[in-house]
Amino acid sequence: MIIKDEQGKTDILSLTYPELEEMMTALGEKKFRASQVYEWLHVKRVDGFDKMTNLSAQLRGRLDGVFCIKSLFIVKRLESRTDNTLKYLYRLSDGNHVEAVVMDYNHGTTICISTQVGCKMGCNFCASTIAGFRRNLLPSEMLMQIYTAERDSGRKISGAVLMGIGEPLDNYDNVVCFLSLLSGEKGMNMSLRHVSLSTCGVVPRIYDLAKLKLGLTLSISLHASNDKIRDSIMPVNHRYKINELLAACKDYFQTTGRRISFEYALIDGVNDKEENARELYELLKGFVCHVNIIPVNKIKERNYTSDRKSAQRFKERLCELGLNATVRRTLGADINAACGQLRREYEI
Ligand code: SAH
Fold first, then answer.
1. Of 19, 176, 267, 310, which sees the most CB atoms within 10 A?
2. Does 3.90.226.10 match the CATH number of domain 10-68?
3. CA distance linking residue 205 with residue 157, whole number of Å
4. pTM for the full predicted model
5. How far is ligand 1, taken at its centre, from the CA of residue 274, in Å?
6. From residue 175, how far is each of 5, 42, 206, 207 by CA, in Å?
7. Which architecture, in CATH terms, is 76-347?
8. Ligand 1: does its nearest atom lie under 6 Å from the Cβ of 163?
9. Which residues contact 311 (CB under 8 A, 6 or more apart)?
């Protein structure tokens, strides 16, 4: 995607390989130069044109005049004492901050990345939305959360979840571009089967995403078994009701063949009763899906609570009824790196 900065320089890390090739050709360069530059950026991951030593000094100078290379600065790095989870607070080139979390699973290392600076969605149990919305992240800024974490941690990241700060489907074009950079053969070459995108339910964009047939897993932050409860905790539900959301999910499954994952943050006294389990069953029966129960994580602005035991009980009830449910493992809670605990503020 062609994005220019204030000085009119093109954000080179947001360009797909064909786009870079086209721009290099327009500059009068041979195609193989694009391949060399792409490799410097996405494989060797240098942060300056001066380091691209197989290019002439003259070409390096020219590139520097036309393109900029976005980089992220690690302001803070927290390592969990209970598991291997790492949380990064990154400063973007304009001074804004976002967070990303690196998690080790049996099958490999996965990163949870942010897609926006802040969030507009207003879910009332989530820290990411409390300080409001600043701006969308660029494709390069999403990619650099991964490259920077890999470099710093020395871990090879094999999967990504778009479950950090922000609503990915509210930054649709940049997210789709980022996914193509991430899975590009000449770049990170990550299979989108190892990628999950989570949404609070921006219905029209779910239909759009289905048409792309990207092979990624769609996670839906459902969190309620009826519209009354969902209205009270998730403002997006005023716009798109549960039945509209589920119709979009059905379409997503029919178009892509990919099973949907529903997230359900269990909150004591809000959505944890027997009738909620039954309603959830009625909503989801017959759906090829998986329900992930998350005991709601603490954020300092709210009194919501839950624990693993009640999550386990709720899960068992759903399984008895016939749904496919699990309790999500909580990683990084001691460093505020768990679901809904990420925020854009710079807190010392
Ligand atoms: N905006 C997207 C991406 C964020 S993903 C979305 O809503 O899906 C972060 C996940 O954590 C979402 O499922 C979100 O609803 C959930 N979450 C937010 N706050 C939480 C909390 N306090 N405890 C548990 N899960 C929470």
1. 267
2. no
3. 27
4. 0.96
5. 23
6. 19, 18, 13, 15
7. Alpha-Beta Barrel (3.20)
8. yes
9. 266, 293, 294, 295, 327
The pLDDT tens digits of the residues spanning 161-185 come to 999 999 999 999 999 999 999 999 9
CA of 198 to the centre of ligand 1 (A): 8
pLDDT at 242 over 70: yes
CB burial readout 79-93, b (16+ within 10 A) else e = ebeebebbbbbbbbb
Q: Which atom of ligand 1 is nearest to the CA of 163?
A: 5
Protein residue with its CA nearest to atom 12 in ligand 1: 221
Our answer on whether the CB atom of 225 is closer than 6 Å to any ligand 1 atom is no
Amino acid at 268: D
Is any ligand 1 atom within 6 A of the Cβ of residue 149?
no
Whose CA is closest to atom 7 on ligand 1? 200
Write down the domain spans for the chain.
10-68, 76-347
